[in-house]
Amino acid sequence: MSSQVYALDKPAAEKPLCIVPAKPGGGMDLTCKLAQTATAAHDMHISYLPGGVGAIAWTTIISQRKAEANTLVAYSGGSLLNLAEGKFGKSDASNVRWVAAIGTDYGMIAVRKDSPYKNLRELMDAIKSKPAQIAIGAGGTVGSQDWLKMAQVGKQAGIDPKSMRLVAFEGGGESFTALLADHVQAVSGDASEASLHARDDKIRVLAVLSDARLPGPLANVPTAREQGFDVTWPIIRGVYMGPQVSDRDYQKWVEHFQQAMATPAFDEQRRMHGLFPFAMTGKELTEYIQKAVNNYRLQAKEFGMVR
User: Fold this and answer.
1) pLDDT in tens, 278-302
2) What is the secondary structure of 129-179 as a DSSP string?
3) 107 with 189: CB under 8 angstroms?
4) How many CB atoms are closer than 10 A to CB 188?
């Protein structure tokens, strides 16, 4: 597997690059690593450009690196939510070229293995009775997707979402590090991230925010719906490119991912990275994302989060 580079280091000549708009270890990192497996001989560098929960990478691509034919950037449903809330400035979904959605993830809520909370109801009851004493790790600040997941569950538990004690991190990797160090008592994050830690038996996932239980390491984890909270949170993951990438180069990458995602080998790699089947590219994906951003904007408005 190719070496990883940091920040704005550019790879050699024509080597493709996937930018992770977060610190290592979270869902964005998993997205670039999955994209890396889809390239010939895994010949793709991975670079980390955290800041503003995706805003720094977004701004860099649309202003400084807008025409780079071999530079991809990872995105998630959280990126689309930030876009909907105005956290990427005056940008909208048309400011970049959406290449592929390569898998889907789901929200989840976890605690440490030695936590006194055995299910989601117990955790929410504790937050309701002593909100200041339970710190919740999340990728991003108030209004982020990790916050909004908890806000929706909290609202159904009779909790004022703004009373919850959220601790913001640059991605899920940092949130789980804080949880394991007991700096926070719970994490609102993603199932793919939780799957990695669940294998080490150091965390307890209380609920997955999916329509049905998930296969794999979290197969025994009940959904939030099973525990009386009607909240689901699917998270698509994929890659985009700069706005001035030529049609020829853009189409090359669209076709590349179409071909890669049609193979059983890619299905296996997606499973190994903790993601679930979802494949969409090009024009169809661009239309899907525009609708998704509009839907996120409506959800965010409900909690007063649109700038």
Assistant:
1) 999 999 999 999 999 999 999 888 8
2) H-GGG-EEEEESSTTSHHHHHHHHHHHHTT--GGGSEEEEESSHHHHHHHH
3) yes
4) 29
